[in-house]
Amino acid sequence: MCTIADISDGGAGLTVVNTKGIPQTFELQIKNEETRRACKVAWKQDPHKMGVQFVTEPGAAAPE
Q1: % helix, strand, coil for the chain, step of 5
Q2: What single-letter DSSP state applies at residue 48?
Q3: Do the Cβ atoms of 49 and 14 come closer than 8 Å?
Q4: Span 45-57, mean pLDDT?
Q5: b or e along 40-54 (b: 16 or more beta carbons within 10 Å of the residue's beta carbon)?
Q6: What percent of the chain has pLDDT over 90?
Q7: Is 13 helix (H, G, I), strand (E, B) or coil?
């Protein structure tokens, strides 16, 4: 679970409990949105902040 600190068309800044163990690619489910967004980690600032880039290529994020 995370909190979105900021969001744009290209990505988002997230606040998390801990950045350790978060994979390089994953799908982000945003509350009140029907679809998940494929993400790639752009940066991590231990221990609680990270940025992700939204990706659109097939297979870019980990499967469910």
Answers
A1: 0, 50, 50
A2: T
A3: yes
A4: 91
A5: bbeebeeeeebbbeb
A6: 73
A7: strand
The single residue listed with the structure tokens 């990270």 is 50
**Residue tagged 């499967």 (tokens):** 63
Burial level of 38, CB count in 10 A (0-12/13-18/19+)? buried
| Separation CA 63–CA 13 (nearest Å) | 22
| Residue 57 reports pLDDT greater than 80 | no
Domain boundaries along the sequence of the chain? 2-54
Nearest to 54 by CA among 20, 1, 14: 14
The distance of Cα 60 from the centroid of its chain, to the nearest Å, equals 12
pTM score, two decimals? 0.80
Which is it for the CA torsion 59, 24, 16, 42, positive or negative?
negative
CB 37 within 8 A of CB 4: no
